[in-house]
Amino acid sequence: MPLLLVLAMTRWTSDYDDVLIAKVDSDLRIAEQYLGQIMAGTGAGVLAISESTSFLEATQQGARSVTSYLEDARTRLSLDFLYFLPRDQVIELSARWPVVANAEQGTLDTQIDILSASDLESLSPALEAQARIPLIPTEAAVPSDRTVEDRGMVVHSAAPVLIDGFEGVLVGGILLNRNLQFIDTINALVYQSQEDGTPNRQGTATLFLEDVRVSTNVRLFEDVRALGTRVSAAVRSAVLDDGRIWLDRAFVVNDWYISGYLPITDSFGGRVGMLYVGFLEAPFQAAKRSAYWVVLGAFAAVVALSAPLFLFLAKGIFSPLERMTKTMSRVEQGNLHARIGNVGSKDEIGQVATHLDELLDQVQERDRALRSWATELEERVERRTAELHEANKKLEDTFQQLVMSEKLASIGEITAGVAHEINNPVAVIQGNVDVIRESLGAQIEPIETELNLIDRQIVRIGGIVGKLLQFARPSEFGDFAESIDPTPLINDSLVLVSHQYSKQDINVSRDFQATTQVRIDPGELQQVVINLFINAVQAMGDQGDLTISTFDEVRDGKGGFCLTVADTGPGIPEEHLKSVFDPFLTTKSAEGTGLGLSISQTIIQKAGGLISVKNRPEGGAVFTVWLPDTQA
User: Fold this and answer.
1) What are the φ and ψ backbone dihedral angles of 160, each rounded to 5 degrees?
2) Domains of the chain by start residue, with CATH
3) 266: which DSSP letter?
4) 232-241 pLDDT, tens per residue?
5) pTM (2 decimals)?
C-alpha cells in the first residue's frame, strides 16, 4: 500500500506539472496574439492614413499642413512616431530598414525593430529618454560591462504613399520600452484581476530587449518595477541563442515562476528579444503540499483504523511467538534465566513453549558447569602466561645485549684493522715527507706549502682514526673531562656550523636559561652539539626554524643541565625512533656514516648523562641532552 501510494502521488505530481506547463503555454500564445494584434493594428492605421483623403488634402496644402496632420494622426492612433519619407529619402532608409524597402515596393510591412539611441533622438528626445533604462545587476545573468540600455524596441510599420507628385513612404510605430499600458494589457488579458479590481501580482508579463527587461510588471519592491534587470543565462541561451520556446520553471528577479519565453525576431530575421508570461510557483506548490498531506492523512487514518482490528485477530498466534522470540533474544544476549512461561494455550504453540523452557533449564545447568571449568582454566593460563612473559622479556633483554656486544666487538675488530691499515701507510708518508725536507734543505722553499698541506692532512687522518678508535674502545683513551659552563661552548658551536644554514632560509632561535656547570671533555661535548645542529639543518632542507634551548632540570632527585635542539623538518619515522642511536643507521644515503648519533650517545653516557629523541606534535624532531650538575 505505501508503494502504491508513492506511485500514485508521483504520477499525480507529474500530471499536475504538465497541466501547469500547458497553462503557461496557453498564456504565452495569448500574449503572442496580442502582440500580433498591436503590430497589425499599427500597420493598418499607418496604411489607412497613407490612403486617406484627408492626407491627400494635407499634401496639397503644403509641408506645414502635412506635418500638422501627421501629428494629429499620431496622437489619434496612439503612435509614438509618424513621419513621411519623400522618394528621394526612401532610397537611403530602405537600405537600413527592410520595412521601408518593402513599402517602397508598394507593400505594407510591419515588424519589430531595434532603434539606436541616435535614431530615437532624431525622432524625438522624449523617445530617447523613455528608452534609456539603467541596468541592474541580476543574479544568474550573463556577466556584462554595460550599465545602461539605450536602444529602443519598436513596432515598426511602413506603408507606400502613391499620391501623384507626393510619392514616398509613410513610417510610424510604437516604442515598447517602458510601455506599461502594453504590458499591463497583456497581463490583464492573460491573468484576471483580483476581486477588488487590483492587478493580479501572481501572474506577470515582460518584454525583453535581448536579455534586458524593458517593459514589465514584475516588481523589485512593492511599487518598483524590475526594469533593467536581466534574464538568467540558462533562459537566454535556450531562447535567444538556440531559438527555442522556454516552458519550464525559472527564477524571475526574486522568486520562482512557471514561465514561458517566446523569442522575438526583427525585420532582418535575427532574434532581438523575448516575450514572457508566467505565474508564481509558490501557490501551486502550497496546493501540491496540501494535497500530499491530505492523502497521507487519509492513508494514516485508514491504517490507524484497520491495524487494531488485524492485530486483535492475529494476537492469538503472534503474541506467543513474539514472547518466544524475545526470550531467545535475551538468551542470546547472555541472560540464561529468561523463560517463556505460560502462553495461555495448550495447543501446539503452548507445547513448543513448554519444551523450549525445559531445554533452557538444561542449557543453563550445563553453562554453569562450563563456566566453573573455564574459570579454573583461565586462572592457570594467566599464571603460565605471566611466567612466560617475564621469561621472554628477560630473554629479549639478554638477546639485545648480546647483539650489541657482538656488534661493538665486531666494530672494535674492524676499527683496529682500519687503524693498522691506515696508520702504517700514513707513517710511511710522514717519514718520506721528513726525508724530503732533510734532502732538500734550503731548497725546500718552493714546495714548503705543499709539504705543510700534506702534514695537515696526515694529522687529519690521524684524528679520524682516533675518533673511530674512541667510538669502538672509549675506555682506552684518557679522560680529559673538566667542569665547564656549556652555554659559551654551544654559542661557539653554532658559529662553527653557520656555513651550513647561512645559505638557506633557516631561522635560528636561542633561549639560554641554564646556570648549571657540568663535567665533560669540552671537545667531546662540542662534537655532540655540532652533530645535533648539522642533523637538524640537513633535515629541514631549504627553510625552517631551528630552536636551541637550555635550562636547569632535576631528574631522579639530581640537578643537571638540559639542552634541547628542535627543528621543523619531517621528523623521524616511527620505525626508526627506537634505533636512531644504533651504529651505522643513517637516512642520508651515501652522505652519512651512521656513527654520529651513536658516538654522541657514547660520549653523553660516559659523562653520566642521557640523550633522547622524540617527534614534535607540530612537526619535526627534538633531541634532548641531560648532563648532571658537577656539584650534585
Assistant:
1) -75, 145
2) 2-280 (no CATH), 479-628 (3.30.565.10)
3) B
4) 999 999 999 9
5) 0.48
